[in-house]
């Protein structure tokens, strides 16, 4: 590092820029002059000259992140230009400087390596705990280095410069063996270090990325020299490393490092040399001894992976699992596990196969297990880990022999295999698939996710599943799922095992495969992983096949088959599966076809010592092994037994001794395999002696002599075991064992010779173990005539039946245990089933409103004659009983303020969300606005108290009550709330506000609505037909209204019930804000409460109507009915309404049913009452009903409806008369007068219309300029108009009748809705025939019609004298309200984004950091913006209160997600905009074009209208008014 000498101003400037850690303004200033070519060159040279100084400043910096970004902003401009980079490399030694600076930077954090020989190790590694690595401080320098290596000319210089390569390998060796893990054997590690993140990141960025950069320039034959250089210096560095850590031939036990970058450089350059440069592999491979050393550490990692998954490293904490996962994870695998396995494949193809196989089993610590004996001692492994380690060893061998990633597959084949593996584990979204496919880190390789090949392969292997919506409300993304033929032909379990980060993914893939086979009818049972044909091996790696044809492997396979057949312990189906897979691999890849005649007799004799005669699996399969000498513990049963006399092929199977039987099931350590380990030692020593001087013949330390001499443990003794089996005979017996039948195997070629010619039969491609055995036997027969003959012979010798097992007491215990377990399981199943059926019947009674009979919780009871009370189940204490005044029962309800009704507009099309300045939404035409204007106008001209009874409020901020249908005792509920209060667990709701979840169904709720105790005497009266005449009934209703205070539950005596009714009323009031309940001019007047209470009933009825789609055509009870609790609500409201007396003089009932005598008293008052024709009939209905004593008689109810219908009809006529032209009016008046005296005159609209016109003509009503004229010429249109005018009232009334008295709502066509509802309400005399039906026939006047109409009209006439301008405006015009809708969104998200993300807020006139827009009214707001905060409420929360009475739906512009605010909580709902692959792009991170998903938006709207946000969305959190 030379001293800096500044010669010009630029150098001085840059120096201080670096010194002050790259201030942004300086960076901008220096970069702005780059277009000047001379400056650019001068600046680049100066930058390179200061490179070391930059590194020093960066190391000291506290803000290294910001500084790193700014360095890269500059360097990327300079080094991305190839011409400039080359020039600087030549003139300023850029490469030397970079490599030296990196080396120097890492040298500051080196520590002594503890790998292998802790005391004498000379190797140093980086310390991953240092800030330099932990904070990734090195990345700007590494990224510059990667950047310049991407230029061919620069990389060429690097690869040609031997000195640079040596320095670089020196740098890489700092990472070799870093972050060493030592297995904790006693205590759990106290502190779990998380340094492994830093280690993996460092190897990937500092070693692997530059390696991929260099590899991208070694693609053609001419670059062979570069590869030779790298391999040469890599091997030198590796040799130095082995010397530095004092490595001989045994790795230190219980240590593993996942970081071997030198090995991986070596492997990847070898792979490239063979794949692209046509180099002869053997010319660049080192000698045998070096290969033996090279394979040790990668093999150690594979064994450790298996140990970690067998929970042998559990005391090291979770982080060790994290390392095992990261090692195979998609971003790391092709720089880590893939090169490691490839390197092992290369070593295996060049080393002695027996040596390699025995090394594998020794590394996996399962050598002791591989014995024929039924018992064994494993000195290095606990017995509980034996099985999974054996599975690990066999699985590793299968991977090693099956994978072809670097051994001959093309890039496209690799991509396809990777994709199939990922899709088989789980359906994947497009983006997660892009992420999971290991991308080839060098950009010029052609496999870039997102490239053409990616899309074409994806469409070839997968089907797209459009995003569906689950009923639970969880949002599904668009997914890709494998095509059927992929499951059929391409599912590769080996690839899946290699790529799974979580072990459960392998199971998931198998489950999906099983499901596919069941569904397609290919295989009904539990299939085994299918065997898949492999890509042919590249000729350079043919040696790998030798592993499958070596005696050691055959001995292991034979032993394992034997043990499985004999039921020894610690073996599993997985072991068998892998054994068969290896046999099948051997048969598929047999060397030259052996001649059948070579079988000589001598083979039979030699077998005692050397097991098999040759090394070819095909011939070894038929070789019979008679006796095996085994080493067993003295306690083993084999010792005490003489060789049995019988020489049948299964001598042991026929022996009766139970003792011997149990022996066969247990476990093992054979002399043969023992000698194998010794043999491995011998071979290793031989090679060393051949290759090296004495210096390397170090005596191995005694500690690693685990296997010293076979007789080391004295209690072992030798026994001779009679076997008399060959692999073929074992396979056939296995087939019998698996199928559970004797002689189940029958050679298929005896029936059909063609099988041998075309062995690829589809029926063998999917199946379980039996299929696998059949497939192997068929392949064996195809390969050799002798095998075929021997299989037939074995099948001919009918095996004697296996005698029943004698059971030892120990086994009896385990069997009993199993039986007991089985019984317990059955008992549990029974109980669960019983419980489920009970729950189901409960749900039916609680939820079903279809028939009022069954519906105990909702309706009060059946219509039988005898007195029966409603019975309720309490979901807390489980008792059933009636609701009493002392111990009332209540319904679990959720009260919420709602402005949904106020959002209805007078149109069927929803408004569009504005996306240009021209489009604006004005709230003048909403239902809420119009009702508001009307009330204000009435209050201007009429007496306040009567105005407050002429309308309903609650269009905005009305209280909606819904229930889940479950009931509980109110005292139980109180104790439940108490326990919730003391519960420390974080809940998603606030108990202090009275919120809770229903104890049974966990639905969100915040109050309990008391059930009114009622016996059902009344029901029978309702059903009976009344013969009283109209006049009597009218009088009765009036008398009943007079009896105030005679409420069955007397208010004076404070019962529990009345207290609860009051408290629930308080809850209802406090649910909505003050401004939505106070409309009177004198604050706090009782009229306000009166208005508020009947409006609550109105709101709930109107909302139920909306949920039914705005009409009652569907009839029956909808889902809204299931959640409705109007009956109970009515009782609570009625009780409170009765507290307010209506002055009898002002009782609207009289005005409706009696002609007034004295007209002058009215005019004397300064403000008259609201004329009857201006009053809202539905409101009048609710006032009448709620002020009557409960329970109400059906006949009185019908009477009230009849009277109100006459008023409604007259209002309709008045509205109609104002709409027609003067000529029409005259015509109608005349035609009306003609018919006036006919008997049915009172029931003819023409007569009545004429009468109304003549009465209203007395005032100044028709004088004003003509309003919008309705050309009513033909009578049909008048009839139609009148029916439409009356329908809303009929709908509300029918619903009310349905809730109060039960009875189903009839379903009908839309055009006959009027007649059906009218007859349902009893307005329509039943003898009417349909064709000449008119709405007027429903009228039933309590007093002469003309008198009544004249009286009502006279009020308008007198009002018209004073205020002629307002008369028409106040006449009730029933507009056709559409259903409430959210704003219509544009098709493309970009339209919204472009308009809103730079839009200024109207309140604070700034561009918000987090803009949001309300989807109900289109208001633009600042999310979380402090700028628009008012009294500690941020703007979104404030808007949600003003616009939705506490419910807000906002689209977050910069995130494309929708957020719901409900009161004091909020939740992220999800996005309604998806990309072309059906995926959300939250926070717009991926930047894909997004399109509206209409189904999702419909669901959002549905949840808004039905007020179910609280129930469907699960993740709520408090917003503390900060949104």
Keyword list:
six-stranded antiparallel sheet, 1523 residues, alpha+beta, elongated
- How are the strands of the largest sheet arranged? 17-16-18-19-20-23
Per DSSP, the total helix count is 60
The helical percent reads 40-55%
Helix/strand structural class: alpha+beta
**End-to-end Cα distance:** 54 Å
Task: Give the overall pLDDT as a whole number.
Answer: 81
Number of beta-strand segments: 23
How is the topology of this model organized?
Blueprint lengths: L8 H11 L4 H9 L4 H13 L1 H10 L3 H16 L2 H11 L1 H14 L2 E3 L11 E3 L4 H4 L4 H11 L2 H9 L1 H12 L7 E2 L13 H20 L8 H21 L10 E2 L4 H15 L5 H4 L3 H22 L8 H11 L8 H14 L2 H11 L19 H20 L8 H15 L4 H7 L15 H10 E4 L13 E4 L1 H7 L2 H7 L4 H17 L30 H15 L7 H16 L13 H9 L6 H4 L4 E9 L24 H8 L5 H21 L24 E10 L1 H13 L14 H4 L11 H15 L1 H12 L12 H39 L24 E2 L6 E2 L7 E10 L28 H15 L2 H4 L10 E12 H13 L13 E2 L6 E2 L1 E4 L6 H7 L6 H13 L13 H16 L14 H22 L11 H5 L2 H12 L10 H6 L6 H5 L12 H10 L7 H26 L2 H14 L9 H12 L18 H27 L11 H8 L24 H18 L4 H4 L18 H8 L14 E4 L5 E3 L12 H10 L2 E6 L5 E5 L2 E6 L2 E2 L16 E2 ...
Antiparallel strand pairs: 1-2, 3-4, 5-6, 7-8, 9-10, 11-12, 11-15, 13-14, 16-17, 16-18, 18-19, 19-20, 20-23, 21-22
Helix pairs in contact: 4-5, 4-7, 5-9, 7-11, 9-12, 11-13, 12-14, 13-14, 14-18, 16-18, 16-20, 19-32, 20-28, 21-23, 21-25, 27-28, 27-33, 28-35, 33-35, 35-36, 42-50, 43-46, 44-46, 44-49, 44-53, 49-50, 50-52, 50-53, 51-52, 52-55, 53-54
